[in-house]
Write a structure and sequence with these properties.
The structure holds two protein chains of two kinds. By secondary structure, chain A is of the alpha/beta class. Chain A has a single domain, classed as Vaccinia Virus protein VP39 (Rossmann fold, 3-Layer(aba) Sandwich), CATH 3.40.50. Chain A contains twelve helices and nine strands. In chain A, a hairpin with a 4-residue loop joins strand 8 and strand 9. In chain A, 40% of the residues are buried. About 27% of the residues of chain B have low confidence. Classes of the chains: A alpha/beta, B mainly alpha. The interface between A and B is medium-sized, with 32 and 34 residues. Chain A: Its main location: mitochondrion.
């Protein structure tokens, strides 16, 4: 009884401090949050609903998904513009590096979870198409003087190729983001091999052993139960399939960390307010980055879920980390 | 107060139940993950020493299937236990370390294999497709698919085609070592006669080069991959161990400068013969073996010539000294007046 009163008081204080001195409040709120959920859990285990973090706030787990949905519903229209502005266009490089590390072979099937506006899937399809073009060009060059046998073989292999088409499935919990993505695909003229599915990362609407590659780019920190999402990833991947996760992480360099913190907490919500008219969503964005586990811890979580050969690369000295694991 | 104690008891009970479930969780290969970050070539070499036996493809696919089934079965129990004991990660870790697993050294009937073994299996399967696709990621992807793995597993090979070529080198070298060891045993048992050094070297190099014959069309591509800067240390290491092994089984136990000169000579012979083989079009590479014979004869001859030259040189010097003293005597410079 006394503990719950203490908790309520702490939340009131936190809310009042929120928009003033953000970094200081962030520090105390972080420690408060660390303390809060464990005592909350003590009582809530009996009550039946646990609580988790939503940015620097503490919310019941059932509510987090709803609030995340609302955040992305609000930002969906201006999502891509804001990405470019906030990261100064560097997010394109990060996504290109993800594709480069993925190095998909022709015929691979991709599941892009929290794919939203479809950046990864578009890049994937383009990559595979250009690889196939290169291969066709190579075989054409080596077959400058084809014999009649070669020509007949070519006809038979052309039929096989259509079944080997790579496919990308974009899965997102938020219909607004998928709508924006679909419009983009139409305007870019990409339609073949792309499908859009509404689904929750913790409970994917797919059968086991379906996909070669599972990617989740800048989405896993919004998931309420990260370990469940990882286990779902393991389930839907084929044996030998690869799990790849691009996510904001801890900056390794202390000087850069301070600049990054200042930029995140001072600039980004302001940009959000000016360009998208939404301060709170972008406040949630930068806070949720701070709450996400760091590179090593996330690597252990992936290993715990059952992936092997788990590795991570730091991009832009730790602002973004690319984790990769295999289902063997 | 009692509420807190009751809750603590509940949590402890749940943790214990979680422990019991997690004990069955697979952990053998998890600590191995970090070892993979150490040089991959070393892992393949170690692997080649461990698991010389090549499992036939059908049985290997069934064992890997069992592996996946067992793995997924344990995943379910681990997942169920995990939800209960979310508050005790430290205890989980301890239980995983405590479970004892037998050797990961690639025994035939073992349920779990290490990541390095799986990678070696994929690369061995990929070798079959090299004549068609060259030394490339496509060959590795098709190799993985024949083992029932997705083509995305090629992502495990960060060196790409280099991994495939180095794996092939390691495999050939270990095969050669086996053959030489077998021959050595036979000589020890008295079942075969001991060959002369020149003949032994020729046979060893010929055996090793014959292993390249199935891949001879694409071998120039492999050589160019081996010459890439990040592959040079590994390829040099393979070459030096190869040459060292051949000389060891030839009976060389020298401990002086000869150790280096012999290995340098054999390295030269091996490399030049390999290059000749690449552009040889005679039946069964007859020209290459003739070239090899000539080079070995050259080396042998050079050794004897060197010795002769040394002794000749000494005699010549002595002759000159004698002539000089005679001259001095004749001109009377030696006389003491």
């Amino acid at each position: 009884m006394a503990a719950s009163m203490r908790l309520l008081l702490r939340r009131v204080i936190r809310l009042s401090h929120r928009y003033n001195n953000v970094t200081a409040a962030g520090g105390s709120a972080r420690s408060g949050c660390c303390w809060g959920p464990s005592t909350c859990r003590c009582f809530s285990d009996v009550a039946g609903d646990r609580s988790t973090h939503f940015g620097f706030e503490t919310v019941p787990e059932t509510e987090k998904a709803k609030r995340v949905y609302k955040v992305f519903e609000n930002v969906a229209q201006k999502y891509d513009t804001m990405n470019d502005v906030m990261s100064l266009g560097i997010h394109r490089l990060w996504k290109d590096m993800l594709l480069h590390a993925m190095h998909p072979q022709p015929g691979a099937r991709l599941l892009d979870v929290a794919g939203g506006t479809g950046d990864i899937s578009f890049r994937f399809l383009e990559y595979v198409r250009s690889q196939q073009e290169r291969q066709k060009r190579r075989t054409a060059r080596s077959m400058q003087t084809p014999s009649s046998q070669d020509i007949s073989d070519n006809y038979s292999t052309e039929d096989e190729d259509t079944s080997q088409e790579s496919r990308a499935v974009v899965c997102d919990i938020n219909k607004e983001m998928l709508n924006v993505g679909r419009k983009r695909a139409d305007s870019m003229g990409i339609s073949a091999g792309l499908s859009w599915v509404v689904g929750n990362a913790e409970e994917l609407p797919f059968d086991d052993d379906q996909f070669d590659i599972y990617t989740i780019a800048f989405g896993i920190r919004n998931v309420t139960h990260i370990d469940q999402a990882l286990q779902e990833a393991l389930r839907v991947l084929k044996p030998g399939g690869r799990f790849m996760c691009l996510e904001f992480s801890k900056v390794t360099n202390p000087v850069l960390a301070r600049i990054y913190d200042a930029y995140s907490f001072q600039m980004i919500p302001v940009l959000g307010e000016v360009i998208a008219g939404d301060w709170k969503s972008y406040q949630y964005l930068v806070e949720s980055i701070r709450k996400f586990p760091d590179q090593e811890e996330f690597k252990h979580m992936i290993e715990d879920a059952g992936f092997y050969c788990v590795k991570y690369n730091n991009l832009t000295s730790g602002v973004v980390a690319l984790h990769s694991g295999f289902k063997l | 107060m009692n509420m807190a104690a009751l809750l603590r008891g509940l949590r402890a009970g749940r943790a214990l139940r979680g422990l019991a479930g997690v004990v069955a969780a697979p952990a053998a290969t998890k600590p191995q993950c970090s070892s993979l970050s150490r040089g991959f070539h070393r892992a393949t070499l170690r692997l080649q020493d461990d698991s010389k036996s090549d499992k036939p493809p059908s049985s290997s696919s069934t064992t890997s299937h069992e592996h996946y089934q067992a793995h997924s079965a344990e995943q379910d129990t681990a997942a169920a236990a995990h939800e209960d004991s979310t508050s005790d990660p430290a205890a989980d870790q301890a239980s995983r370390l405590n479970t004892s697993y037998q050797d990961q050294g690639g025994e035939q009937g073992e349920e779990y294999e290490t990541e390095e073994q799986l990678q070696a299996r994929i690369l061995t399967a990929a070798l079959e497709f090299v004549p068609q696709h060259g030394w490339s990621m496509e060959a590795i992807a098709i190799g993985a698919e024949t083992l029932g793995l997705s083509s995305a597993s090629t992502g495990m090979f960060y060196n790409g085609a280099g991994d495939l070529v180095l794996h092939f080198l390691a495999q050939c070298n270990s095969q050669l070592t086996d053959i030489l060891a077998e021959q050595h045993n036979q000589v020890q048992l008295g079942q075969a006669e001991r060959k002369k050094t020149a003949d032994f070297l020729r046979d060893a190099v010929e055996t090793r080069l014959r292993m390249l014959i199935p891949y001879i069309e694409s071998w120039p591509q492999a050589m160019s991959i081996l010459l890439l800067p990040h592959n040079i240390p590994d390829s040099l290491k393979h070459l030096s161990t190869l040459v060292d092994d051949i000389w060891y089984y030839a009976g060389d136990r020298s401990t002086d400068m000869n150790w280096y000169t012999k290995r340098a000579a054999l390295t030269g012979i091996y490399n030049t013969t390999e290059l000749v083989m690449l552009q040889d079009s005679s039946p069964d590479f007859r020209d290459t073996w003739n070239f090899l014979d000539n080079r070995i004869q050259d080396v042998v001859q050079m050794a004897t010539t060197a010795k002769q030259m040394q002794s000749t040189g000494e005699t010549v010097v002595q002759g000159f000294m004698g002539a000089a003293i005679t001259l001095k005597n004749l001109t009377g410079l030696n006389q003491r007046r």
